[in-house]
TrEMBL record:
InterPro entries per the UniProt record, alphabetical: MoCF_Sase_C, Pyrv_Knase-like_insert_dom_sf
PROSITE patterns listed in its UniProt record: MOSC
Protein known as: MOSC domain-containing protein
Provenance organism: Angustibacter aerolatus
All copies of domain MOSC, residue ranges: 31-169
């Protein structure tokens, strides 16, 4: 097995799907989505050119991540052919492979794609919205719960590029868990 990698980068200057709209008939926005080989990340701002760049949020959501293995798990769960779902359609900014994103929740980590490390402060899961059923496959929203990705804010500036990446994290990593589902504990009444 090879090491961790960035499989794809996703950038869009505006919101095409409005938050957690329950009905895709509410419309799709006009903004183009691009899949560059490299992006510039600015500390405290996000990815240059992306819809979340420079937006202040209590959710720490200027950069979003999803594991390619999560989409493969969804394919298996929904009985779809392997490779039939495109992880880029989740519109998460960074599609990774070989990284257990759930283990990184609420921690700090660094990714080095060859241009020097970029540090991030992670928050929680990027919850899947109703659009996942429309853009990926019926049932994808529920299948992605607990493995929908990770929200984070960059704490240093740098560049990320598609290809091998070195992960520096203070928490243990098990690449076999990269697509695993982790449910939040329910609060007792």
């Amino acid at each position: 097995m090879s090491g961790p990698s960035i499989e794809a980068l996703v950038v869009s200057p505006g919101h095409n799907y409005w938050f957690h709209s329950p009905d895709p008939r509410d419309g799709v926005g006009p903004y183009p989505t691009s899949y560059p080989d490299e992006v510039e990340v600015v500390a405290g701002q996000g990815i240059v050119g992306d819809r979340f760049y420079g937006k202040v949020s209590r959710l720490a959501s200027s950069v979003s991540f999803v594991a390619a293995e999560a989409l493969e798990a969804v394919e298996d769960e929904l009985g779809l052919a392997r490779g039939s779902l495109d992880a880029r359609l989740t519109r998460r900014n960074v599609v990774v492979r070989g990284i257990d994103l759930n283990a990184l929740r609420h921690t700090e980590f660094m990714l080095d794609a060859g241009a020097g490390p970029v540090s991030f402060r992670a928050a929680g899961e990027t919850s899947p919205c109703a659009w996942m059923d429309d853009r990926l496959a019926p049932g994808a929203r529920d299948a992605l719960r607990g493995r929908g990705g990770l929200r984070a804010d960059p704490t240093t500036s740098g560049r990320l590029r598609v290809g091998p990446v070195v992960l520096h994290a203070a928490v243990p990593q098990d690449p076999a868990l990269a697509g695993a589902r982790v449910r939040r504990a329910r609060r007792l009444p």
